[in-house]
Structure formats: structure tokens, C-alpha cells
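Request from the bench team (R.T.):
"We need a structural guess for the complex before ordering more MTE. Sequence and SMILES attached. Just send the C-alpha cells back."

Command: build protein-MTE structure.
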Amino acid sequence: MTTTPNRRIFLSGLVAAGGVSLAGCRSETYLPPDYGSLFGVSDALSMGAQRLILQRQPLAREFAPSLISRGFPAIGTTLPEDDAYLRDLKTGFATWSLPVEGLVRRPLRLSLAVLKAMPARTQVTAHSCERGWTAIGQWTGVPLAHVLRLAGLRPEARYIVFDSVDGWYESLDLFDALHPQTILAHGMNGAPLPVQHGAPVRLRVERHLGYKSIKFINRIRVVESMAGISSGKGSLAAEFGYSWYAGI
Ligand SMILES: Nc1nc2c(c(=O)[nH]1)N[C@H]1C(S)=C(S)[C@@H](COP(=O)(O)O)O[C@H]1N2
Ligand SMILES: [Mo]
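Reply to R.T.: structure attached below.
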């Protein structure tokens, strides 16, 4: 991504004024995709500060299975009104596949069976929605890092963009994309991922507010910059005024 030097100095100056110095760090690592607004500046501050502070304790807390919430709310889209999706649902997603494309050496098309046969991680984590509720769920899925390794990131790769059947999109920088708890979840609480929670595959990106964990994923793209992807803000939630960086 390209940054103008004066913006970079402006942002790192603000971070230093906040008590955290970015000396010795390549500042572009800390910049969210859009920082042309006040939201963007606060994104950069909290993101830069958290990246430094969390370096030594990077995992989200995991809970005992006995703490799994009985009624995990289903929020936003709970059944996409999309003909192709509804057809896939009827066949148990037998012919569904997930493209992984963009700045990769080997573009992939992963069927659900292939995804389910990949190495999986199961984690019991707390989900916090920006609307003020929290619930604990158990998620099973393929580490995104594994899929990105199979596809092979090109050197220009900076962000991973997720599209979904209901028109949402989200994106992660490589720090979150390669984080061990970032998974393409196909299971919840020991069963296949239920429709209302994003079947067949949703993102789980722990340590971020709930909206970052996009449901009903239908495409993964690797990009250098968010420019030209919708309004360039990095996520639909960001277009509605929420922080692109949703770290908690
Ligand atoms: N595609 C898509 N992803 C989405 C949403 C949505 O409406 N559509 N809602 C988001 C919000 S705000 C939250 S809190 C979580 C809710 O996930 P859940 O329905 O499994 O509780 O999904 C997020 N991902
Ligand atoms: Mo949410």
C-alpha cells in the first residue's frame, strides 16, 4: 500500500504523543486500509498500540466447554435471500465451493468436503457484538493461515478480503489473517455450522468485535490495497461508521 510521508509522520507522531512509540517499526504495518477520516486516525492509534502491547500475549482467551452459552444469538442475516445459496442449502452444499484468488501463486477452489478434510482447530471463545451482548461458542475450522499457505501469498499481499452471500465484506491485515485463532469455521458447538450462524463457512477472528467474523463467506481475495474495493474502507461495517480495526 502507498502512504504519503507526511501522513505517516502525522500518525506516528500521534501514537508517540499517546505514550507508545513506534520507533523501529515500519509504520505502514500499523495502518488500516483507510485513514482519511477521524475514524481512520483512531483506528491507527488503537491498532498500533494494541499491536505493540499484544505482541507477548497474542491469543484470545479460550474457555472450558462447560461455559458454552446455551442460546447463542443469531444476528443480522440469518438466511440469505439468494437463489444459488438456497439451492446449495438444499443439497447440503455438495457442489458449493470457495474461491481463493487475487495475489496468490495458486488460486484455489475449495469444496466443503476438502475444507472439512483439512487440519482443523477447535476453540471456545467469547463473541462480543457491538450492540452489547456477549456469548461463548465453540468453533471448529481450518486455520486461515493453512489455506493461505496452500495458495501461496505473493510478496505484494497486504490484506485478505472476504465477500459474503448477503453482500457484506470484511478484510484483515496479515497479522490477523495469520493469527492461529483466525479460522474458516465450518463447525459450531460440535455440529456443522448452522445456517443462522453463517453456513457453510464463516470467519472467526477472535479479539475483534463480532461484526468482523463475517458469515456466509463466498469468496476470499488477497489484495495489496483496499482501493477499488467498494468504497475502499475495508469492510461494510466501516462504511456504516464502525471501526475497520475492531480489536477488543
Ligand atoms: N455476512 C454476514 N456476516 C455477519 C453479519 C451479517 O449480518 N452478515 N453480522 C455480524 C455481526 S454484527 C455479528 S455480532 C455476528 C453475529 O454472528 P451470529 O449470528 O452467529 O451470532 O456476525 C457478523 N457477521
Ligand atoms: Mo454484531
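Two things stood out. Residues 75, 129-131, 210-211 surround molybdenum atom (ligand 2) (CB under 6 Å). Confidence is low (pLDDT under 50) at residues 1-31, 35-39.
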